[in-house]
# Entry
Amino acid sequence: MLTLGDGTFLYNPIVQALTASRQMALPILIVIFNNRKYLSMQLNHLRFYPDGQSVEAGMFHGVDLADQPDLEALAAPCGAKGIAVRDKAALDAAIAEAIATVQGGQTCVLNLQVNR
Ligand SMILES: Cc1ncc(C[n+]2csc(CCOP(=O)(O)OP(=O)(O)O)c2C)c(N)n1
# Structure
């Protein structure tokens, strides 16, 4: 199992990684905690450059990832299964489906929407 944020997921060669997992018959459960932000960059600006231009102007370039595609939709073209959870009520069933998918030999991308 791999747990990561949406910014981290997007920083990687997604097509290549998902395709390699299929080619090598290595099913992986990939859980994305998706806040639709690269938030750590903003936090580091605040921490290391509290008097800098970004903080002064309230402009944090590259932090807002709200326009990203549906990340779970990237799974199917690479032979993986994609599941999105945007409502807490759907979480338990989605986790069960994701685990069953991987146990059945297919990589699964579980895209969990979390608070920003
Ligand atoms: C191998 C590697 N590549 C790139 C980075 C730079 N990096 C640090 S955090 C991050 C993404 C953070 O975004 P996200 O996963 O959405 O987490 P958040 O900051 O929102 O908590 C990246 C690309 C890194 N630390 N390591």
Observations:
- Helices lie at 6-10, 14-23, 39-48, 53-57, 91-103.
- The CA atoms of residues 37 and 90 lie 22 Å apart.
- The first strand starts at residue 2 and ends at 5.
- The mean pLDDT is 97.
